[in-house]
Amino acid sequence: MKVIGHRGAMGLAPENTLLSFRKALELGVDGVEFDVQNIDGNLLVFHDDTLERTTNGSGLLLDHSIDYLRSLDAGQGEKIPFLHDVIELIDIDTFINIELKGLRTASLVMELVKLLDKDRYKKENFIISSYLYSELFLVRQLDPDIQIGVIADELPDVALSFARDVNAYSFHPSLSLVSKELVEQVHEEGMLLYVHTVNDPDNIAKVKAMGVDGIFTDYPDRVRQG
Ligand code: G3P
Ligand code: MG
């Protein structure tokens, strides 16, 4: 059962910052998850469409220059990181779940993964996930082997059918969707099931008992303890 640090370890450090990824690694996670967006050809690790919740900036992410975005404080003096900086921080024994958050991210991310595949990382180090079917479809067109994760917060049958079509490696339902039956169905289809985002100790115990293959959590320490 894999412990996957959500946006690093966002319950313990500012989300999607290098500090948060260091914290997750310190806690011995099996994988880290984070969100990627394309700003004029630069891949930044950032979750929201707007800046207010997690930085000292304001307005829409996409309305700003890369220089302005990099000048912001994303919490405890951390900057919004570039994707390549986050990947370089993560050791090769920890898997990297890149969630494609905005449109037009798929081909840039796949270019980077292809480059890294020649270096110290292997394709097996990565899972590329999204709610955005068009982006995942493009990922599959660009690479027949890369591990794809399909995220679902509703309509599990529709999401599962897409997961089948795109030959997904893993299915990532929300806590509200997961059940023992869904875990069994996903396994019968030859995929792994990673549930998001589970922080409460009782829920952690419940999903473990259902036989999930992995848990996305803001508190990797709690999953390890349970
Ligand atoms: O990948 C699981 C989870 O991160 C998806 O939701 O909104 O936290 O990116 P969100
Ligand atoms: Mg995410």
From TrEMBL:
<dbReference type="InterPro" id="IPR030395">
    <property type="entry name" value="GP_PDE_dom"/>
</dbReference>
<dbReference type="GO" id="GO:0008889">
    <property type="term" value="F:glycerophosphodiester phosphodiesterase activity"/>
</dbReference>
<feature type="domain" description="GP-PDE">
    <location>
        <begin position="1"/>
        <end position="226"/>
    </location>
</feature>
<protein>
    <submittedName>
        <fullName>Glycerophosphodiester phosphodiesterase</fullName>
        <ecNumber>3.1.4.46</ecNumber>
    </submittedName>
</protein>
<dbReference type="InterPro" id="IPR017946">
    <property type="entry name" value="PLC-like_Pdiesterase_TIM-brl"/>
</dbReference>
<keyword id="KW-0378">Hydrolase</keyword>
<dbReference type="GO" id="GO:0006629">
    <property type="term" value="P:lipid metabolic process"/>
</dbReference>
<dbReference type="Pfam" id="PF03009">
    <property type="entry name" value="GDPD"/>
</dbReference>
